[in-house]
Fold:
Amino acid sequence: MAAGRVSDQMMSADLSGSSEPPLIQVRDLVKHFPLGGGLLSGLAGHRGAVRAVNGVSFDIKRGEIVGIAGESGCGKTTTAKLLLKLYEPTSGSITIDGKDLTTLKGAELKAFRRRAQLMFQNPYESFSPRFTILRAVSEPLIIHGMGDTAERTERVRQALEDVHLRPAESFFQKYPHQLSGGQLQRVVLARALVLDPDFLVADEPVSMLDVSVRAGILNTLKELSKRRNLTVIYISHDLSLIQYLCDTTAIMYLGRVVEMGPTRQIIGQPQHPYTRALIATIPIPEPNRPEKTIPIKGGIPSAIDLPSGCPFHPRCPYVMDICPTRMPPPVGIEGVTVRCYLHGGGEAVGEAAD
Amino acid sequence: MSPTQAITNKASAVAHQDSVPLLEVENLEVHYNTRRGVMKAVDGISFSLKPGRHLGLIGESGCGKTTTGRALLRVLPRNGHISGGEIRFKGRDLVRVKDAEMRRLRWREISMVPQASMDSLDPVYRVGKQVMEVLVTRGEMGRREARERAEELFALVGLSADRLDNYPHEFSGGMRQRAVIAMALALNPDIVIADEPVTALDVIVQHQVLKTFRELQGRLQLSVIMITHDISVVAETCDEVAVMYAGKIMELATVEDFFHDPYHPYTLGLQNAFPNLANPDQALISIEGYPPDLVEPPNGCRFNTRCPFAIERCFHEEPPLIEVAPGHQAACHRWREVDQLRAKAKEAETWQLGG
Structure:
């Protein structure tokens, strides 16, 4: 694959060309899950795949909080799992600090596992009910063979304090069932941070929690990211929360990043017709707002039979002749990168199209 | 009389008695027997629902909102029972009517869209058959009449009639949710109790389903009790709101007063904690702590352990739900100081406990 095409495909909020190299570079990332080979479909030669991620490229800077948003099935969780090397990509590459993730093995892989942490959605299912909080948060340190008991206990104490479980010692001997959902999710965060990672992937970390305690978790994440220069990749369908937390936002649709840029810009002046529809449908906690009309029709097509060209074209109110022919290239506009022919990119494709 | 006529007649009949409540709940108590003792899940709540109005019951998990909804239909879990109060509906007290009467009334007069019910459609039967089953067994309709009514119901919730022949797996989540709403409307009830009807749905679909509820309100004069944790769902669909906390109603107001003139500190806290896409500069503040144990509820106000404004009185004397402004009730000893409390509630430091 030519280097020129790679840079051409890149989506990034950073169009100013900052000097610091990105922590994470994703290029043309593809992940397809082959469908189970049933005997009959195998004999008939039909063997499709769920095309979860279909050519995603972006850069993430150190210390940045990046939101990946989209409806269920858009590929956001698959992308997150690829970044953590929980899945192997079908094609494309992920480089972290200049190292290609796919080639990591042995000690290097183990070091990566320490640097990259995951925060799960459901805190109630994240713990063994038989482990005390001290044991649960020490677990990653034990696995990575870090420190002796005293050192580990000190690191656990520090991690619990950092997530505002204070005094930390009062939580050491507690069991998960003795904690509230909000407290447990803070323990999840402490367990992720105890290894002092470079980046954290948080997949809908507050969706199971009551509204009254969500803000506390988000504020803690924000504070920790700033203080530790921690990169956070925040996966959510909830753009109100993403607006609150994230510096940069990527909008995904059917395995593609259709728009990416500074969060304020994405939410304040969305460029892609899909982003516009998504934002217009977010309920606002204010009564008597004027009725919004959403021009898009139908539901998300299946990720097995992807629409040709721009995957959004069957639902798009502005669809043009060119849209079903080829995926629009990324175009920089108003500080964001968008993939939609409404904003240009059609000229080049017109020539190149078969 | 065709089903369409029935709908229109009901709507016009209802329009004449606009101010008379359709449903009045008074001092309702619902208890669960648990291993640890009796849990007072709903502890003496009162509210009313007027015809054609949408009432939001909001609060966090365990506040008693779902229990309230289920108590109205007397479909409580086995260890739960109504231990006091009245539910007055069309001249009857639903707490005391016989089981047979209650069975007759479910679906026909009050129906429910239970939590996660879109996943409760039977996967081996066509969706239309499941809708028609309600019409045939509960509504005593013939098959042809039931089919016609099912087509009409699907049109009402924005599904095309040919979809009746699909199986649930051929439906998206939003379509299944609409089919379940169609079933709840099947026998033309006066009240639909909807428990978190959009929680599991993506925003675009959520928007469509909420819009369906609003349209039904206009077309059928349907009364809805919307159970939700989401204040933006309340903003988009409800006329009135009851804020529940630990088995009690803390505040009862029109949706405008709830958002613009809130009185209870819990309501103030909820609004601080809730993100608003239209207000990017808002700082979110959480309400530290967690709700009390309802097996041994604390003395005084139930919110006292989390309330930044609690004074000594709040720990031994329970504040009654009283009228604080016309058509607006709140249960707080300090309601007269509301201007001061609202100003203080906007500051993050106010909500830091244990400091």
